[in-house]
Automatic annotation (TrEMBL):
Protein name: Winged helix DNA-binding domain-containing protein
Organism per entry: Streptomyces wedmorensis
GO terms of molecular function: DNA binding
Keywords: DNA-binding
Top-rank taxon: Bacteria
DNA-binding among keywords: yes
The keyword DNA-binding is annotated on this UniProt entry: yes
Length: 396
């Protein structure tokens, strides 16, 4: 419908939830056939907790697709998903096609700051200078070119410089000894020169090997921002300017510039706010069939918007988020968060509803819990950022 006062198309909360169901591949009829499809649909999968990528993809795959093997193939063989730092200095898994845009729009500026900071820390707390750092990086890259991939420890054995340390914050309360290796590898990763490869251990492990990164074309930052925002609005529109600034971590002027390049359309939201969608995305979206989902901690759907009242009861926030704003595992019914879940020490998937969604919903949620338990199997999954409800359920 059109708002008679502003002539803006109104997209209310119910339609936003319908868009989310289909575009985030959560409704049963919208589920994906591959990890690459999920990555393309969601734009960015939170990768700070390695298990989140697998759980987020698994929640959205159709029957018959094995999540662990599918995600591992996408990350480590086909390289259709690439782990790298992106928005808000956070680690994500991105579709390979978006890597140039993410790097130019978001990662490169952060990498410049990261290198500047490292050089300043080395100058203050060691005898190492820029030439020493450049030679160390050259040796690391040469070693990876020969090996193909290696752990940080293996690289330290081959390049002893990496085992060096420096004093962080000399003369301050934060003074301490830090390893050169972790900082050098982080900078090289943020600059797109190396990439995280297959981990040691299971798919929940965060001890990654490193490998040479595939080269990608350089992009103009403004064009890159427009491309990234175009993909994100296709998945998550409508979104407010505040949502966009929060999700990207950009300056508000950069957000507005990208919206202008895209010719984004302003729409009215419930409560009188203004959101933005792509100019060809104004057609009404019908409700999908009823659906349930169990999404992991840091899943990109609940972490997609700064303003969340249209899918989350504010009274449920304290149970589902930690003090830093990281969301824990959530239970969904028809586009709303209705509870949380955890894995019990004995392996069972247990959940608690924070509101009563009805009998149909309870049966569907139980079925999703059983589906999740079937593919997780004997692996134990504990979120890196634990929330009150997850802690309670996981120890009950």
């Amino acid at each position: 419908m059109l708002d008679r006062m502003s002539e803006k198309r109104t997209i209310g909360a119910a339609e936003r939830r319908a868009r989310l169901a289909v575009r985030h591949r959560l409704a049963a009829g919208a589920r994906a056939g591959s990890a690459a499809e999920v990555g393309d649909a969601l734009v960015a999968l939170h990768g700070t907790d390695p298990a989140s990528v697998f759980l987020a993809v698994g929640a959205r795959l159709g029957d018959g697709v094995k999540p662990v093997g599918e995600v591992e193939r996408a990350l480590y063989e086909d390289r259709t998903l690439v782990r790298m730092h992106g928005m808000r200095h956070t680690l994500f898994a991105f579709p390979a096609s978006l890597v140039p845009a993410v790097h130019a729009s978001t990662t490169h500026p952060a990498a410049v700051r990261e290198r500047t900071t490292l050089l300043a820390h080395l100058a203050a707390g060691s005898d190492f200078d820029g030439a020493w750092l450049a030679e160390t990086e050259r040796l690391v890259l040469a070693e990876l070119a020969v090996r193909g991939e290696a752990t940080g420890a293996e690289l330290g054995d081959a390049v002893p410089r990496l085992r060096s340390t420096y004093v962080y914050g000399p003369g301050t309360r934060q003074e301490g000894v830090q390893s050169v290796a972790s900082r050098v590898l982080r900078v090289l990763g943020m600059e797109g020169r190396i990439v995280r490869g297959r981990p040691q251990g299971t798919w929940t492990s965060s001890r990654f090997r490193w490998a040479p990164a595939e080269p990608h074309p350089e992009r103009e930052p403004a064009d890159a921002r427009a491309e990234l925002l175009r993909n994100w609005l296709a998945a998550c529109g409508p979104a407010t300017e505040a949502d966009l600034k929060w999700w990207t971590g950009w300056k508000v002027t950069d957000v507005r510039g990208a919206l202008a390049v895209l010719g984004a359309s302003a729409v009215a939201l419930d409560g009188g706010g203004t959101g933005f969608v792509l100019p060809d995305d104004l057609d009404p979206v019908p409700d999908p069939e009823p659906w349930a989902a169990l999404l992991p901690a840091l899943d990109p759907t609940p972490m997609g918007w700064q303003a969340r009242d249209w899918y989350l009861d504010p009274e449920h926030r304290p149970a589902l988020y930690d003090r830093s704003g990281n969301i824990g595992p959530t239970v969904w019914w028809n586009g709303r968060i209705v509870g949380g879940w955890a894995q019990h020490p004995d392996g069972r998937i247990v959940h608690r509803l924070l509101s009563d969604p009805g009998t149909e919903a309870r049966h569907a949620i139980d079925a999703e819990a059983a589906r999740l338990a079937a593919w997780v199997g004997d692996v134990r999954v504990t979120p890196r950022f634990r929330t009150p409800l997850e802690r309670e359920l996981g120890s009950a």
